[in-house]
Amino acid sequence: MDVLGYLRLVRRHWWIVLVTVMLALGTAALVTVRTAPRYEASVTFFVTTPSQGVTDAYQGSLFLQQRVKSYGDLLTSDRLAQSVVADAPLGLTADQVRSRIRTASTTGTVLLKATITDTDQTRALKTTETLATKFTELVRKVETPPDGNAPPIKIEVVSGPRVTSSPVSPQPTRNLVMGGVLGLLLGAALAVLRGLADVRMRDGAALQRVTGSPLLGEIPYENGAKAAPLIVGAAATSARAEAVRKLRTNLRFVDVHEPARVIAVTSALQGEGKTTMACNTAIALAEAGWRVLLIDADLRRPKVADYLGLDGGVGLTDVLVGDVQVGDVVQRWGEKSLLVLPSGATPPNPSELLGSKSMADLLVALRDSADIVVIDTAPLLAVTDGVVVAVQADGALLVTQQGRTSRSQVAAAANALSSVSVRLLGCVLNMAKVAKSDAYQYEAYKVVVPPAAPSVPADRAGSRRGAKAVGGDRTQELTRLSR
């Protein structure tokens, strides 16, 4: 994955970054508030040597630099800390004094700096003053030769002791900035990990790769789609309706040499919008002047009749068992050239009924009685009904809901179709998140249809042809209804 891919993952899971940054800032603020203020007192020593005893200036400089390193260790020694505690009652032990001392020396110089950090400003200054006095006395005592001559090393205080007027820690600005930066980095890392671990179908490109079929459409998510799933009325001018029309165009030209006239619409799981997609695809095809027949072959949980507001008590099941003729139960929907065959009564053996010879003969008859037959089938991974129907169709259209179905489930659904040599016409990403810029472009360019404008264009010349008399009386009745 490239850098842009990682950035997309961070943008997709922006809430993780936001929460992490807020938690980091809150933690930094809490630590800042609960940390006691600390003051620093410092003193700087200058280490020198008399001209007697070291004749070479360069060798003398190296000698003093080595001494400075040793004096740094001497400043934090137990002996010096004990002498400081013994000289001034500071309320600290020798170990506490030693832990508060920090030394620093600049390379190439003979300056040595001692810093004491304490929560008490006065005690920090007093400790530093005592430390400076005891340190110079200790060096003089250690460096004085036994004969009592002047010591070769001399320690002088050149700066301090002084204490800071304001606390050196905590530093609210620095802590908040560091907390925010660390929270941002941690949040971005978590967002990327969450994105890499997310196996759900997130975009059309991934859906196309997993199924190995063309992406025929991306249907955008709309808040009002659940209450009004069909692309009629006010929804006919929505971005969702335009996406369905693009799907209609792509579906008709997906294979111009072998066009599909019987299309099975299915999905991997229940609730991905396959029934809505079947209904809207049939409506869009009928709007273009095609004579369309919509069949509800989901005999376990039929929804087509409910969506279209039709009576679904008698339908496909009754035709297959021979109780009624197909022409008696096919219903015309609206003013469009759309005919609907509901599911009918729920049978005890849906798979066997859909795979029967009666179903095969019925599809042969209906194929010649309509330009396009759209079949709503059951989900592929739940039951075998969808595969049984798709085998008898010219091809299948796989509907996948964005962010709900995993890649493995989509792959399993595609494999279920390919294992029985079903022609997968393409896939559709349903309830997709569309960029605001794309939605704005459509809203700015869409045409508001006047109320008097016809909602259905004139039938094509080919749609005016009568259907062939195949399948007996039931086909003739269906032909009469479709005219």
**SS field, number of helical segments:** 19
Q: What best-fitting shape do the alpha-carbon axes yield?
A: rod-shaped
Taking the alpha carbons of the first and last residues, their distance comes to: 55 Å
Mean pLDDT over the full residue set = 84
Number of structurally distinct domains = 3
Radius of gyration: 42 Å
Let me know the CATH homologous superfamily of the largest domain.
Answer: P-loop containing nucleotide triphosphate hydrolases
Give the name of the CATH architecture of the largest domain. Answer: 3-Layer(aba) Sandwich
Could you tell me the strand content as a percent range?
A: 15-25%
Q: Assign the structural class, choosing from mainly alpha, mainly beta, alpha/beta, alpha+beta, or little secondary structure.
A: alpha/beta
Largest sheet: 8 strands, mixed
Indicate the low-confidence ranges by residue numbers: 452-475
Kindly state the number of beta strands: 12
CATH class of the largest domain: Alpha Beta
- Under CATH, the topology of the largest domain can be stated as Rossmann fold
Membrane topology: Multi-pass membrane protein
Catalytic activity: L-tyrosyl-[protein] + ATP = O-phospho-L-tyrosyl-[protein] + ADP + H(+)
Subcellular location: Cell inner membrane
Keywords: ATP-binding, Cell inner membrane, Cell membrane, Kinase, Membrane, Nucleotide-binding, Transferase, Transmembrane, Transmembrane helix, Tyrosine-protein kinase
